[in-house]
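Notebook, student rotation project (T.W.).
Task set for the rotation: take a protein with a known small-molecule partner, predict the structure of the complex, and write up what can be learned from the model alone. Partner molecule chosen: zinc ion. Sequence and SMILES entered below by T.W., checked by me.
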Amino acid sequence: MSLNAQVADALDQIAALMELTGENRFKVIAHERAARVIRDLSEDVGSMSPEELQSVEGVGEKIARKIVQFREEGRIDELEELRAKVPAGLIEVLQVPGLGPKTVARLWKEAGITSMDELKRALDSGELESLPRMGAKTLQNIREAIAFTETSGERLPIGIALPEAEAIVAHLRSVAGVRKIAYAGSLRRGRDTIGDVDIVCVADPPDPVREAFTTMAGVRKVLASGETKCSVRLAMEGGQVVDGRGAGREVQVDLRIVPASSWGAALLYFTGSRAHNIRLRERALKKRMTLNEYGLYPLDDDPTPPQRRGVRPIASRTEEAIYTKLGLPTYPPEMREDRGELDLREIPPLVEVGDIRAELHAHTIASDGRMTLAELVDAAIERGFHTIAVTDHSKASAQANGLSVERLREHVREIREENARRGRTIEVLAGSEVDILADGRLDYEDEVLAELDIVVASPHSGLSQDPKKATKRLLRVIEHPLVHILGHPTGRLLPNRRGLEPDMHEIVHAAREHGVALEINSHWKRLDLRDTHVRMAVEAGCLIAIDCDVHRPEHFDNLRYGVMTARRGWLTRDHCVNTWTRQKLLQWLRQKRQGASG
Ligand SMILES: [Zn+2]
Ligand SMILES: [Zn+2]
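Predicted structure of the complex:
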């Protein structure tokens, strides 16, 4: 694990332990925020001076001192002190979703629970039933939450969760009384993996939608069916399983039924992120207003929530109205992560699916694709693209039927013929997805690569290399004059293969210098570059390619996941080569080479 990740974990632990010991809420939030910022930071905290650390947003003097102590001594005094106060097993109890720190603190202080095992035993023996304010329902919820954590495990890739959520929304939209409905949460923000699915709706009367939701196909268990919130656990087998991945998995889906007048406030609240919402509430308070899931209200001293007192909201019907009253632009959901968006006066022109006019990474039956050359080109025309690059695998990818030099040359001839046959309809580029060998050499000689229109270089093996070797390996590729695009740069696979962990700071700066585009591979198992890497690349001024790595016709549909990832990294149209005109794109491909030879 990198030092940044270790520091972030330590700060997160401090925050969690503070919550349990009942520390000031603001201190908890400050530590959570610093942890998040450091986890996303492109610089290595190991090489930063205390002053540089303090210049990082969210890192004050005190937290900077803790970071310095951690990197020098491998420990933080405050963390050790907190650990001494709190039994170690309680941290695990705190991880159970739905078990807030207040409840965990009560279980600890009033019932002496100090670990998950003790909690389970106490639940079984019935001894918790005698605790005041701990009703049978609360206990049942705790039992189910524990059971769910034990069976669910990992988060769902967005490529499985999003189609599922869309199917649910489409199903419920047709139910009598439903006036508005949308999915929210991390799904709407386009994160690469999803914990649970949140759906918000306006329904009058609410009973039919509640009934339809709790009885829809795939519901394994109804966890709640209340006036404003219904919760179910849904089996993922059947309809929406993608590539066999969702099978046997369960996901929790929450439906919130909100008043029409609170639609915008509810959508904002349930979309999150939590960190973004905290920022918004802070900003509201500074302006003598208070923001909750019902609306933005004038601030007063009455402790009863304003919506219960019939106070008229300042804004509540749309997200836009609320942002406007807070003096902010309406952030696209992908930007709502508290990664500096609140400091922007204007939203940059983020890339959209409709802007993409070229696919620059695609396979045919010549290697491991399922389409013939002609079928691939037809599919690209159908998508409205002006360019399709044919990039079958190189010889080292033997398992993917990679092409020998002879086969490649024959393939190039066929591609050129196909291109001539299509006339002006579409540009068909002859290329290769050439393997990056473990030491950074490429799998074809330069004279072969020079015969191609486009070279995508990708790592497929040696993906557990140490970070220093990985950095050297990728830098060598970026410096290679004949490479246009670095394909799926880290080789990670969601949810479990971490892939290469190069120094991204060095990678993005070299890519910018050499005019190489870094790829966002849109397959939902990859999403590589990931969002935080895209953000670094954008800040460095790199070019980015968003490609579908097409092997089958339906892979073109993965484009939206790549675009969401791009937007999470604030990528604008002008830096995305797939949005360029045909002329500009071809010019870049040619000129990069001429720059190399000249
Ligand atoms: Zn590949
Ligand atoms: Zn590929």
